[in-house]
Amino acid sequence: MNNTAKTQMKDGHTVKPDDISSPEFICTVNENLTLIQRRDGLTFGTDAYLLAAYVRPSKYAIAAELGGGTGIVSLLCAVRSKIQRVFSVEVQKEYALLIEKNARYNRLSDKVISRHADIRDITPADFERELDIVITNPPYMRTDSGKPNESTEKNIARHEVFGSIYDFCASSARLLKYGGLFYCVYRPDRLVDLIDACRKSRLEPKRATFVYPDTTSPPSLVLLEAKKEGAPSLIITPPLIIYKEGTREYTEQMQRVYDTGIL
C-alpha cells in the first residue's frame, strides 16, 4: 500500500462517488474488498483491521463474530481465507442487514452469514455446533462513562448497552468448543476487566499485543487471544507501533499488517 492509499485508509478509505443524500456510502478497503457503510453510523477503523489480522489462519474453522457492525472483521477474515465460514452476529437490525448486503456485494455470502441476535441469548444450537473461533470488537465504554453519542447506532456500538465485556466473554465461552480460540480488541485502560471477564468464563489469556500510535505515546489498543479451558501461560508479544516518529507514515511492521493481513 503506497502513502496515498494509507492516507485514504486513515481518513475512511477510498470513497467511491455516490449520492450524498443516501444513508449509505461505499469505500474500498483493499484490492479484494469493498465495504458499504452507513453515513450516520459507526464506520470501521484501525482496531477492526488489526483484530482481523490477529486471528491465526485456520482455513477449516467455523467462527462467529460477536457485534458484527458492518461485518468488516468477518469479511476481512473471509477474503483472506483465514476461516471456512463465519457467522456475524449483530443486535441492530439495520446492521445485520448491512452485513448481509456487504457479504453479497463482495461475493462472500457462502463464507459470511449474518445473524440478527442479542449476543447474550445465542447458543451453539443457533449454529448447529460448537465453534472453533469467536472474534469480537466489543463496546469499549460502560453505559455510565463518556458522553452519550447523538447517534443511537454509534451509542450502541460504543457503549455496553447490549452487554458488558463479561457478557461478551460469557457468550464466547458458551459458543466455543473445548480448546477453541477467542480473539478480542479492547482499550488498555479496561484490560483488567477483559482478563477478569475471560477467566470468569474459562477463557485463559494466551497472547497479548499492545498497540501504540508512536514511540512516545501510551498504548491505544490491546489485542488478546485466549483459549477455552487453556492452561495458564500468557505471552506478551513485542509492541506494534503504528506510525514512524513525527510522521503519519506507517512503520514497516504496520505496513506488513496491511499488506498481508497477518499480525
CATH class: Alpha Beta
Residue-averaged pLDDT: 86
Regions with little confidence, pLDDT below 50 for 5+ residues: 1-15, 153-157
CATH topology: Rossmann fold
Structural write-up:
The strands form 2 sheets. Strands 4, 5, 6, 7, 8, 9, 10, 11 and 12 form a 9-stranded mixed beta sheet that branches. A 3-stranded antiparallel beta sheet has the order 1-2-3. The protein has one domain: Vaccinia Virus protein VP39 (Rossmann fold, 3-Layer(aba) Sandwich). It is 29% helix and 27% strand. Strand 1 and strand 2 form a beta hairpin. It starts with a helix and ends with a helix. By secondary structure, it is α/β, with parallel strands linked by helices. The relative contact order is 0.13. Mean pLDDT is 86; it is low at 1-15 and 153-157. It is built from 8 helices and 12 strands.
TL;DR?
The protein has 263 residues and is α/β, with parallel strands linked by helices. The protein has 8 helices and 12 strands. The strands form 2 sheets. Strands 4, 5, 6, 7, 8, 9, 10, 11 and 12 form a 9-stranded mixed beta sheet that branches. A 3-stranded antiparallel beta sheet has the order 1-2-3.
Secondary structure: elements and pairs:
Layout: H1 3-10, E1 14-15, E2 24-30, E3 33-38, H2 46-54, E4 62-66, H3 72-79, E5 85-90, H4 93-105, E6 112-116, E7 131-136, H5 152-158, H6 165-175, E8 176-186, H7 191-200, E9 203-212, E10 221-228, E11 235-236, E12 240-241, H8 252-260
Parallel strand pairs: 4-5, 4-7, 5-6, 7-8, 9-11, 9-12
Antiparallel strand pairs: 1-2, 2-3, 8-10, 9-10
Helix pairs in contact: 2-3, 6-7
